[in-house]
Amino acid sequence: MDWRCGWCGAFVVTALACQVPVATDGEAGSSSGAATTTAGSSEDGGADVPQATMWLALGQGETVVSPLVDGGELMLVLGGQGAWMFPIDVRGEGFALPRDPADLQAEDVPRLDLWLDMDGFAISSDGHLAQIDDLPLVFTVGTDGVYETGYVPLIVPEVLSDMRELDGRAGRLHAALATADGALTVDLDVVVRAPVGDGGGGSGGSGGTNGEIGETAGGPVDPQFVDVTAEVGLTYTQGPKNLAPNCKLGYANNPTGDLCQTERMIAGAAVGDVDADGDDDLYVTRLDAPNHLFINEGGTFVDRAAEVGLAVTLPSSGVVWIDIDRDGDLDLYLTTLGDTRYYLYVNHGGQFSEEALGRGAAIESMYLHAGMTPAIGDYDLDGYLDLFTGEWRLQTVIWEGPYHARLLRNRGVDAPGSFEDTTDSAGVPMYEVGNMLGPLVFSPAFVDLDDDGWPDLPVVADFATSRLFWNTGDGTFIDGTAAAKVGAEDNGMGSTFGDFDGDGRLDWFVSSIYVEGNDKDDGNRLYRNLGGREFADATDEAGVRDGGWGWGAAAFDYDNDGDLDLVQTGGWDTPAFTDQRLRLWRDAGGFPLVEVGSQVGLDDVGDAGRAVVVWDYDGDGDLDLLVTHNAGMARLFRNDGGDQHDWLRVRAVGKASNRQGIGAKVQVRAAMNGALQVREIGASTHFMGQSEAVAHFGLGHGEAPVAEVRVEWPVSGVVQIFNDVPRRSLLTAYEP
Asked: Beta 182-193 vs 73-75: how paired, if at all?
């Protein structure tokens, strides 16, 4: 019986949908018994056959955990979007290879067949439910002259459901390695093991009062950021710097003004694990040039946009990954600047098709759009993600017409992944706020700021038009801006949320424009959340008022010491802001924060910084930074040294709630009576950038496991409690 599926698509997410019958006892791939090895060649040409322990091992990341032996354990680790994988390392010990991997000829490149037969499913590399023939391997020189591949993951298809149920089950692993000198094959009986803390954990009591995070000896660390943009393959230019009369938008009422002003504002980027291999990939927008989908291949990137239908040439602006239909893969939403509509690319098994018009997401009109940042969240708690689209369109500057800053409700079970415009019925119009006509929205967000379980809608907008809309829970919002004492900044640009003061409530940072001595351009704001739908201005106490001409911002713990730091980019093509530097405010033990950007290697200077994206692109446990630039190249800054402190990462996979875990609240106490850390997944950045959908916690130094992790789900309201979670691990919470 031939149960091999063949090639179903370029990405793992494609293969997850490929289901085929598999072998049963007595058929191919399912035999039992002792491990067997067929003939091969040793380097000196002798007859000794290398055993599996010499060339096959269990790998995690690029670390070999243990050799694979008959009767041994095969450990599951978490990939992206809830996918699991068995990372397996192939080592160049016991078979001949050239001394230098670069000397390998095409016909000599080792090739691998690898699959696991378990519980009636045959799982192969790249996620297929069957064997994939002749997977080429790329060897590098490892320790002691041993060649290594890094690792080859066996992706577990989602059809196998909750991986916790597989712990302790038997499987049969087959591997066949073909080299120029011969072939090695092995069949091993293995036992599947789920990692401690991934989906387990017992009940526990509530945490105590705030205190220390549980550090032991070890002292502070001093991470440095290193520009690795070219090294990892992320070189691209966002677009041209157009000059009149070649602007994307004409200013009918301002013929002598800067006709290209609006397009100077944009440079979008979004991260998400598109191929479900455990590494977040990157999509970037460009102005009238093909957009890029950079697939993360273990810390380096390859553009695969053309292969999957995403190398679109548009006046692209903002972008966000959103699972619109709860099928477990990521779809893509694009706003535009200078087009008459927006775009929605739906993921069909790894290939994308544009379906915005048919799904009610295009916001089409005869007038040119000036789209900014799109935000995602489930505001009606039906388990389907909704959209709010930003637009900067000043009627007195551009022209009259319909406005495209809109709230789009996902129709949910009635029409999954289709949308209806509820802007007016929900009470969130942004086109006539104060004395300004037209929406001036840069950074919308869905975040629960009053802890009532319902996502609120804070909207950062220009010319003193920022608004905070409280979610009433019946599909409508009320404007609570004045009563909450927010919206005081004159030129709201970027936005981020985090618990900067450690009281368990999310505070709100808004970037703006600072000109010393100018009462109108009086800088950024940090609004401290007091509870009860009220905030207090803590800007000067925190020391974060002066960010120059601010744009994108993000709250993150770059040194993993257990408190939140703040990064902000910016700049504008005017003399005061042409040499603006990237700011990083470090929490060194409370307010005020200390600005250390230039000291830690963040040497980005200029007038074009726009988005800030936070993600652990290389999987080493500390957070890296991507900064996009208008009409310029993005820069990726790798964090070197943040991983000297311990960390914990929490991923949420929804069941009643959305599959991406957006809106899930995660609380961590490293010690049972220690300080409380709080994150809301999806709330980290909001101007032109989408950061990773993972809650990342710095833990400082310590030996004991993390005492308690709480995950609160937005739709079901269920609170899961995990105790004694290992440090330096990724915990995956599945909504019950």
From this structure: parallel
Nearest-Å Rg of the Cα atoms of the chain is 26
- Tell me the β-bridge partners of 284: 269, 292
Task: Give the single-character DSSP code of 49.
Answer: P
For residue 736, cis peptide bond before it (omega within 30 degrees of 0): no
Please tell me whether the peptide bond between 726 and the residue prior to it is cis, using omega within 30 degrees of 0.
no
Strand 331-336 to 313-322 pairing:
antiparallel
252: CB partners within 8 A, 6+ apart: 398, 399
Residue 163 burial by Cβ neighbours in a 10 Å radius (0-12, 13-18, 19+):
buried
Tokens of 431: 């086109």
Q: What's the pTM? A: 0.75
Structural tokens at position 505: 């409530």
Q: Is 230 helix (H, G, I), strand (E, B) or coil?
A: helix
CB 373 within 8 A of CB 402: no
Least confident of 192-196, 317-321, 599-603: 192-196
How confident is the model at residue 37, as a pLDDT?
36
Strand partners, 269: 284, 689
Task: Assign 3-state DSSP to the chain and report helix, strand, coil percentages, each to 5.
Answer: 10, 40, 55
Helices (H) and strands (E) in the chain, counts: 7, 55
Residues 426-464 pLDDT 10s: 999 998 666 666 789 999 999 999 999 999 999 999 999
Query: Using alpha carbons only, what angle is made at residue 500 by residues 318 and 556, rounded to the nearest 5 degrees?
Result: 45
SS (H, E, C) 125-163: ECCCCCCCCCEECCCEECHHHCEECCCEEEEECHHHCCH
Torsion of CA 434, 440, 442, 447, to 10 degrees: 40
> Could you give the residue ranges of the DSSP H alpha helices within 205-342?
229-232, 305-308
